[in-house]
Amino acid sequence: MDKKVKVQVLMSTYNGEKYVKSQIESILSQSNIEADILIRDDGSTDGTISIIENLKEIYPQRITYYTGNNLGYKRSFLELLKKAEIDKYEFFAFSDQDDYWLSSKLKIAVNKIKNNSNKYKLYASTVFITDENLKVLYKKDISDFKKGFASTLTRVRLAGCTMVFNKNLVKVMTNFEFKNMVDNVVPTHDGLIMLVNAAINGYTYIDQDAYIYHRRLKSSVTSGGNGIRKRILHEKDIMFGHTGNIGYVSNLLINTIPQLMTKQSKKFSYMIINYKKNYIQTIKLAMNPNIDCGIWVANIESRLRILLRLW
Fold first, then answer.
1. How far is 156 from 179, CA to CA, in rounded Å?
2. Cys-Cys link to 70, which of 43, 51, 177, 214 (CB 3.0-4.6 A)?
3. Domain 5-227, second-level architecture
4. Distance (Å, rounded) from C-alpha 272 to C-alpha 266?
């Protein structure tokens, strides 16, 4: 019998008492995988910590948790990457606190990437969008998803809760420091790890099948499935609310991992860093064919943001 692959699941919690127990149990019930959980609580004021403590008593070897000040989900997950035990686990995964994982989720993800020869590996998939009772509303369509560095800068389309990645990629992520970043330009954990993997020519596997029930709640941080009004406000925020965020993350990559980046990703990063110097460079960047995430609205938004010098 083959030895089970060891995966450490990184979960950030915040006032998640309603669903966190079932999510943790779904992770611990993964088939043919040795899955343990590292939890960082981001300053919960409800019963979340008590629930985690009770589960830890039942699974003392499989659950590790610690608490911290409220940093927001972006910084909380990015801090978890720095705590990941790369000497103990071969693969790692992100987890939301209110989803529910099918028992085959991690096994399938690991099998899709473990035998690839690339030093850096990342898996992501689509999800089943559900209501709060896990009634499936629809499966998110990512058939038009486009891989690549510029595509990820254009729009982060894949959910971090689906991602599984190897320890070499985690090692690269630990080079980044996030504590002093301005709130509106802090990159998301899922967007940054996808971007880094693309920038260093890592292997990315995109699974069109779904193994996660992803609850859409009124309190959800992201906008998908929460109505037209919230979607419009979300798009407005993307368009005007994060001035300079793409330039910031481009500088971040160039200043942190230049020795690992491909020539192409470096070149595109410098185009972004320098595009405000004159209008010829601005127009050249706005017309770059690589600005394509597979969603025409997002592509237009990005090109408009460049012309308005908001990237």
1. 22
2. 43
3. Alpha-Beta Complex (3.90)
4. 10
